[in-house]
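queue> pop job 88
queue> type: inverse folding (structure -> sequence)
queue> payload:
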């Protein structure tokens, strides 16, 4: 056999090996593809969508929540989240929800006056029920919802007409003011105790979170001292409360409390706020007063 024949045989052998390797690779690739789970319909389209177009949330839950919210009458959502704390129980002479007798003298003043009092505050009623983040429209819808319910209507009609006998109704809430100011001298007596000067340990509470809750909820009353609320960072106003201990302060803030001076609605009227957030807000206010 010549040298040329040897080269030809070697090249043929190499080509055969290469073909065998290619065949094995093809067989392996086909088997791998067949064994792989198939993508569901629409998976490719979803994967190549722009980021802003992809919904990564829980679609069924969101859809359910939206459907539930859309079933609420205008103003009902705001009422349930904010107004029910006072208007559900009638504290501080707040007209009780659905009570025609409570609402009649207010309705007689006209819707414009009711909305003005709710937005700006009036006597024991803090501005926007203590929820400064609410829009004017949300507050107005809540007023209309309560008015319509008291009149036996549904929805949020905007055509309430003031009756001629409007003026006498303005004197109805008067007893509240005197109740919140007369007993003040008695509140200073416990301040003489030694425990009033002892600082409370607040290291277990998220004061930064508490500050956020204070700014969104508590500021409406504690920022000005309305309704007998101890003013923010006023040591003399807070020392009697601090002397009682954190647990009692937490209980009063969470469940509501009517004392000798004013009243604290449950969770400051923000009934959807968690107990932990309320505690953080109380701890934050205490930290600035002690």
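queue> result:
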């Amino acid at each position: 056999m010549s040298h040329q024949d040897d080269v030809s045989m070697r090249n043929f052998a190499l080509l055969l090996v290469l073909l065998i390797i290619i065949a094995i690779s093809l067989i392996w690739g086909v088997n791998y593809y067949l064994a792989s789970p198939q993508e569901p319909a629409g998976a490719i389209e979803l994967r190549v969508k722009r980021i802003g177009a992809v919904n990564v949330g829980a679609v069924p839950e969101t859809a359910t929540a939206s459907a539930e919210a859309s079933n609420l009458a205008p103003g009902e959502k705001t009422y349930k989240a904010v107004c029910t704390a006072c208007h559900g129980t009638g504290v501080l002479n707040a007209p009780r929800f659905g009570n025609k007798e409570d609402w009649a003298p207010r309705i007689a003043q006209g819707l414009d006056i009711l909305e003005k009092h709710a937005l700006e505050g009036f006597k024991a009623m803090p501005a926007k029920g203590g929820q400064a983040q609410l829009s004017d429209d949300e507050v107005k819808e809540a007023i209309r919802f309560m008015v319509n319910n008291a009149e036996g209507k549904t929805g949020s009609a905007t055509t309430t007409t003031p009756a001629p006998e409007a003026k006498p109704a303005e004197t109805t809430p008067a007893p509240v003011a005197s109740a919140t100011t007369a007993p003040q001298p008695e509140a200073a007596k416990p301040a003489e105790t030694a425990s009033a000067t002892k600082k409370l340990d607040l290291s277990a509470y998220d004061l930064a979170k508490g500050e956020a809750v204070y700014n969104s909820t508590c500021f409406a009353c504690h920022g000005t001292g309305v309704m007998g609320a101890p003013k923010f960072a006023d040591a003399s106003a807070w020392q009697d409360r601090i002397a009682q201990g954190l647990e009692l302060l937490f209980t009063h803030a969470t469940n509501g409390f009517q004392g000798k001076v004013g009243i604290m609605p449950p969770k400051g009227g923000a009934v959807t706020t968690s107990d932990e957030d309320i505690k953080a807000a109380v701890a934050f206010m205490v930290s600035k007063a002690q």
